[in-house]
Design goal:
One of its GO terms (molecular function) is beta-galactosidase activity. The chain is mainly β and 937 residues long. The protein folds into six domains: 189 residues, Jelly Rolls, CATH 2.60.120; 98 residues, Immunoglobulins (Immunoglobulin-like), CATH 2.60.40; 246 residues, Glycosidases (TIM Barrel, Alpha-Beta Barrel), CATH 3.20.20; 92 residues, Immunoglobulins (Immunoglobulin-like); 93 residues, no CATH class; 141 residues, Beta-galactosidase, Chain A, domain 5, CATH 2.70.98. The protein is built from nine helices and 60 strands.
């Protein structure tokens, strides 16, 4: 038989019916259509395999865009993403919107005598299926679950057949709408996961449910069909490379049997964990009493044991684990819930890049290939039955639990089943999960305490402290809500000091992984987050990395400096060419990681961005067991102190970067001394009027107002530079009490003295054009901001290059994750998660700035800090609509030189409810800072 390219006919082999589609498309021996030596399940895809590989079907939508028009649509897909119907967020029900699908296909004549099933991986939400004009079975209700019909009697083998499917976007069952369509997420319609025909031998294996424990004990519960005579099931365990694990084992099967159980014990199998995702496979063959093979399947699994030890913790293979995860919606801006292995791998890779070891499926089971990849790459999974605030009735919910567990039961990555979310659980369904799961995984009620695990959401810092000190395992399935730029990384350092090491803390899941922004082709392609309901991601809609990405990566790294001083980008004075490290892996010894060092040199202003590597090498990996502390010794050259910075990086056994720290060897005063050279010749002139004093050095003219001692104007040649109205105190008052000016060698000084919070300002323009500003202020008590402000028109700015911690902006409670380097970014007006989507955002607070060059339409404005610890504030960032508590305060003016900056809140909590890093700056008295300016064409 040849491929029918119009219908993407694919004949392949699969395991049991519970296998994921990623295993469906392996051609049998002899090529497509050839009879395999051992009868296997053969599959014919009717749609494409995924959203990246689609097949057009005929389609008509009944309401919304293009209503009543017969056209074609790619499948699998959500119809809204292809110009049909209407867009809806949770709660906005449209019962009249339905999609009619038609598709012709020709199943192979060689399937005669087989049992043939029409399998839908999922369709939203009610699906009425007809084959050749005859109903395939009852309407399926529930939008995220695999379902199938036995269509053996309905098909005409070797001839054209017609498949007709009516998909109702809303369900006729109100509890399905309550659980799925009124949830806090985008609603879509359509056949959004693949559809296939699966042909089983007349007598065969229908599905397999495996329990494989860490002690090597193995059991497989096998569901059989069509066994009309005595037979035997024979099994062999193998590693994925084909190596046999033990010998074959078997069990006799009687005539008419519908189930059988096989068991064995493997000697010291390689165990599965998120850190060591060792997989095995079960080869299972049903044969007649005389040894003739009837059906063979292959099922993948992992040896591992999961325990909830009440009042203690969550254990995998006998070791307590801490989950570091995010909540993930299956979502892409242009395809909705229709996805692909490529997109699944992208998301898993990004989570692992953040040092996450877990993911919660919010709020529905994902594509099967996503779970396959979690098994392969190593992520712990919470698999979830849909429900948000409302639940399925038992009658419609019970078959959905069955479908969920039977499809996903053999994935070692799944630790828990979630029965709905935030009150969306039907307790009558709790015991249903165990009926189909021989592993008897615990069932959770996310948002409350169930199965001995407290999963309560969005706790304050103080209530989190109480919970981790309590008697119940604490594992919030949602915490630190990431609305816009609030939450996620902000506050995590404080929370993780509580949650990362407490005995009864099992970790938690940040809300959420990505901004759910739909491309609206009815609005000119705008990205729509439904106001403030969906821009909750650590990542943008196209997986743009927001600032919290790097904060989370740093805080959740399994390798951490033992000395808190090493979290600062300024080099520790006590450095002895060794770095003490804490191993926060659960199973991995640091001797299996790689450690590399680099000595760096930073370019001066005008020399571009980035750095130059002066020397590099590898350090021997220390033998440090999980939970222990050890030291890595760096073989640095004798002249290492001549570099600008030292970088230490760590990669895990798979080669993934898990940690990296750059420490500046040279301090801000060192860079300032190298950049700002005093003039040796020339002089500055001064001209005074009733209102101001103007200092002139070559082409630079600086004017200081006599009424307040502030900068009122700058000119570089004939070009005005609009920096003005500073330094004004970022908080408090300043009343001028004295004003003077005088020559000072090759320069000229303007001195202003004040009563109030700002105490003195001294300007000095040198003959070489460098303008020095020294200011002093006094502050005590709590303040959002400490420092001074200037005005500058934002419209004139084109970009920034700076030496400091970047490239992302920071908040007082999100300082980790940035690194010292020479960074560059063009101007943008991104409102994080809401508009623009250009990252890193241009505006905001920039940490530990040594120097910065602001590129403007008026030329380059260079700022150089003479002391450590300067926060450079650039303008006030845009914010999306209704930020709730996800806000941060900024001082007046457009540019600020600060010693203290403000924290940011998250959706559910203002900064007062968060941890110590979210509290205001406690001022300690007198502050002094020197900053240099230069203005160039």
């Amino acid at each position: 038989m040849e491929f029918d390219r119009r219908t993407a006919l694919v004949i392949g082999t699969v395991g049991a019916a519970g296998a994921g589609l990623s295993a469906l498309n392996v051609p049998p021996p002899g090529g497509a259509g050839a009879a395999p030596a051992v009868p296997v399940t053969q599959t014919m895809l009717l749609t494409g395999a995924d959203a990246d590989h689609t097949v057009d079907w005929e389609f008509q939508v009944t309401a919304g865009r293009r209503a009543g028009e017969w056209a074609t649509i790619p499948t699998p897909s959500n119809w809204e993403c292809h110009g049909f119907g209407s867009y809806h967020y949770g709660g906005d029900l449209v019962p009249t919107e339905k999609g009619h699908y038609r598709h012709s296909f020709t199943p192979p004549a060689s399937w005669a005598g087989r049992r043939i099933f029409l399998v839908f991986e999922a369709a939203m939400t009610d699906a009425d299926v007809r084959v050749n004009g005859v109903s395939a079975g009852p309407v399926h209700q529930g939008g995220f679950y695999r379902f199938r019909y036995d269509v053996t009697a309905l098909l005409r083998l070797g001839e054209a057949n017609l498949l007709e499917v009516t998909v109702s976007k809303e369900s006729a069952d109100n509890s399905v709408n309550d659980a799925e369509r009124r949830g806090d997420f985008w609603n879509f319609g359509g056949i959004f996961r693949p559809v296939s025909l699966q042909a089983y031998p007349a007598a065969g294996i229908d599905r397999v449910a495996i329990e494989a424990r860490a002690d090597g004990t193995f059991a497989a519960q096998v569901t059989l069909a069509g066994v009309s005579a005595a037979a035997r099931l024979t099994a062999q365990l193998r590693r994925l490379d084909g190596t046999a694990v033990g010998g074959a084992f078997s069990v006799a099967v009687g005539s008419g049997a519908t189930s059988a159980t096989l068991s064995t014990t493997a000697a010291q199998p390689r165990l599965w964990t998120a850190e060591t995702p060792n997989l095995h496979q079960l080869e299972l063959t049903l044969a007649s009493a005389t040894g003739v093979p009837l059906h063979s399947v292959v099922e993948r699994f992992g040896f591992r044991t999961v325990e909830v030890r009440t009042g203690d913790g969550i254990y995998v293979n006998g070791k307590r684990i801490v989950l570091k995860g995010a909540n993930r919606h299956t979502f892409w801006p242009t395809s909705g819930r229709a996805s692909s292995p490529r997109l699944a791998r992208l998301d898993i890779g990004l989570m692992k890049d953040m040092n996450m070891n877990a993911v919660r499926m919010s709020h529905y089971p994902p594509d099967a290939y996503f779970l396959d990849l979690c098994d392969e790459l190593g992520l712990y999974v919470l698999d979830e039955l849909t429900g948000w605030q409302h639940h399925y009735d038992e009658g419609v919910g019970a078959p959905l639990v069955e479908a969920l567990v039977e499809r996903d039961v053999n994935h070692p990555s799944i630790l828990f089943w979630d029965n709905g979310n935030e009150g969306g659980w039907n307790t009558a369904l709790d015991d249903d999960f165990g009926r189909y799961d021989p592993q008897r995984r615990a069932v959770l009620h996310p948002w409350t305490t169930f199965s001995g695990v407290d999963t309560s959401h969005y706790q304050t810092y103080s209530s989190t402290a109480s919970k981790v000190a309590g008697a119940t395992i604490f594992m919030p399935t949602e915490f630190l809500h990431g609305l816009y730029d609030g939450g996620a990384g902000a506050g995590l350092n404080d929370y993780w000091k509580l949650m990362g090491g407490a005995q009864r803390s099992a970790g938690g899941f940040i809300w959420a992984l990505v901004d759910e922004s739909v491309v609206r082709d009815d609005r000119g392609g705008v990205l729509d987050t439904n106001g403030s309901r969906a821009p909750d991601g650590i990542l943008g809609p196209y997986r743009e990395k927001e600032g919290s990405f790097f904060t989370i990566k740093d805080i959740w790294s399994p390798v951490q400096p033992a000395n808190p001083a090493y979290y600062d980008s300024v080099f520790p004075a006590s450095f002895d060419k060794t770095v003490k490290l804490v191993n926060r892996y659960d199973f991995t010894n640091l001797r299996t990681c790689r450690f590399g060092w680099q000595l760096l040199a930073f370019p001066a202003p005008g020399g571009g961005s980035g750095h130059r590597v002066l020397a590099q090498g590898e350090a021997g990996a220390p033998d440090v067991a999980p939970g222990a502390t050890g030291a890595v010794t760096l073989g640095l050259p004798a002249d290492w102190t001549g570099a600008d910075a030292l970088r230490l990086s760590v990669t895990d056994p798979t080669g993934r970067d898990v940690a990296g720290w750059t420490w500046r060897i040279r301090k801000a005063p060192d860079f300032a001394a190298g950049l700002v050279k005093p003039a040796t010749t020339g002089s500055v002139t001064a001209a005074e009027t009733a209102a101001d004093v103007t200092l002139v050095a070559g082409g630079t003219r600086v004017t200081i107002g006599k009424a307040d001692g502030r900068l009122t104007g700058v000119r570089r040649g004939s070009t005005p530079v609009s920096l003005a109205n500073g330094p004004a105190p970022a908080g408090g008052t300043a009343t001028l009490t004295g004003f003077s000016h005088f020559r000072d060698g090759t320069g000229w000084v303007v001195q202003a003295d004040y009563s109030g919070d700002l105490t003195s300002v001294r300007w000095r323009l040198d003959a070489n054009g460098w303008l020095r500003l020294e200011y002093r202020y006094r502050a005590t008590g709590d303040h959002d901001h400490l420092g001074v402000n200037f005005d500058y028109p934002e419209a004139n700015v084109r970009g920034l290059t700076w030496l400091g911690d970047g490239p992302y902006r920071v908040y007082k409670n999100r300082l980790r994750g940035v690194q010292p380097d020479v960074w560059h970014k063009p101007y943008n007006d991104t409102a994080t998660g809401a508009s623009g989507f250009a990252y890193p955002e241009f505006k905001g607070y920039h940490a530990r700035t040594c120097w910065a060059v602001l590129d403007t339409t008026e030329g380059a404005v260079t700022v150089v800090a003479a002391e450590e610890g300067l926060f450079l504030r650039l303008f006030t960032p845009a914010v999306g609509p209704d930020p709730q508590n996800a806000v941060v305060t900024y001082p007046a003016g457009g540019i600020s030189l600060l010693d203290g900056i403000a924290p940011i809140g998250n959706k559910f909590h203002g900064v007062a409810a968060l941890g110590p890093e979210s509290r205001p700056n406690t001022a300690t008295g007198d502050y002094h800072r020197t900053v240099y300016f230069r203005f160039d064409a």
